[in-house]
Amino acid sequence: MSPLGFGLSIEPQLWALIFVMVRVGAAFVAAPVFSAVGIPLVVRVTLSGAIGVLVLTAHPITPPEHVFALATILAVAAEALVGLALGFVLQIAFAAPMIASELIGTSMGIGFASAIDPQNGKSTPALGQFFSMMLTLLFLSVNGHLILVEMIVKSYVALPPGGAWLKPQQLENIAFFGGYTFLAGLLLALPVGFLLLCLNLIVGMISRSAPSLNLFAVGLPASLAVGVVALALGFPAMGDYLLVIIDEGLAATQSLVLG
Questions:
Q1: Which end of the chain is less crowded, N or C, counting CB atoms within 10 A of the terminal residue's CB?
Q2: pLDDT values of the chain reduced to their tens digit, one per residue, 259 residues
Q3: Which residue from 19, 65, 5, 49 is spatially nearest to 160, judged by alpha carbons?
Q4: Residue 125: enclosing H or E segment and its boundaries?
Q5: CA terminus-to-terminus distance, the chain
Q6: Residue 62 near residue 12, CB atoms below 8 Å
Q7: Residue 59: CB partners within 8 Å, gap ≥ 6?
Q8: What is the three-class DSSP state of 66?
Q9: Residue 81: is it exposed, middle or buried by C-beta count within 10 angstroms (0-12/13-18/19+)?
Q10: How many CB atoms lie within 10 A of CB 120?
Q11: If you write DSSP's letter for every residue of 89-102 in order, what string do you get?
Q12: What is the dihedral of CA 126, 128, 133, 137, to 10 degrees?
């Protein structure tokens, strides 16, 4: 076969692979774990290509005929929207520990303690980094990353290319799922937050009965000590609820793909 004929035979396949990689790559950009700053761009592109090959072998994907056309631009935008939605739903669930860390850290008096989070490269509370790290480890331990890849592959059946625009009901479900972040954050912080609230009530009553007492010398160390003990006692239950958050995020992703 001539080189020209070989080039003509491989070009449609390469265009189909690039077209499939748009949805997969967009999901990896928005999804937790895969979007971490520590993962090099080359690794993400390679994973997108490998999963794209699996998608092409499992489902017959027909990309748009003309690369530079309005219909092609709309199709690529639809693919990117679906991929971003799949990753963003999980990202919403992963934001719950940050809300819990803000509530607990403020009550303990360590709300000012923050550092650069290696996951997203932004400044986050130190307690939030701990919760985020534990949530990531639990997500990997239950094979959540593999379930996400499976949902991406299944999305080509429920949302085939060319008709992949999300319906208003699906966008509404994503918006309403954002409220779950605040609910999960409050429930995650409830065991420690309740004990710290009781401590603040006790310190408030002491300040009324003994106004000359220096509350900063008593209240801050007491809040810190009670917070650390409450975290140690309540973390088994908090770990179980972190698994519930992961299940809810994966269930919301499955609902977006399969309805």
A1: N
A2: 434 343 444 577 888 888 888 989 999 988 888 887 778 888 888 988 899 888 888 888 888 877 778 888 888 888 888 888 888 999 898 888 888 888 888 777 776 666 666 666 666 677 878 888 889 899 999 998 899 988 888 888 888 886 666 777 888 888 888 888 889 988 998 888 888 888 888 877 877 777 766 666 667 777 888 888 888 888 888 889 999 999 999 998 888 877 6
A3: 19
A4: strand 123-125
A5: 47
A6: no
A7: 153, 156, 157, 160
A8: coil
A9: middle
A10: 15
A11: HHHHHHTHHHHHHH
A12: 150
Q: How far is CA 190 from CA 47, 107, 126, 235, in A?
A: 39, 12, 19, 11
What does the chain come to in residues? 259
DSSP secondary structure, 191-222, as one string: HHHHHHHHHHHHHHHHHHH-TTS-HHHHHHHH
Output 33-42 pairs: Cβ under 8 A, ≥24 positions apart: 33/136, 33/139, 33/140, 33/144, 33/145, 34/87, 34/145, 34/148, 35/87, 35/91, 35/120, 36/118, 36/119, 36/120, 37/118, 37/119, 37/120, 37/121, 38/118, 38/119
Q: Which two tokens stand for residue 231?
A: 């975290």
Handedness of CA 100, 104, 106, 112 (dihedral sign): negative
CB atoms within 10 A of CB 145: 16
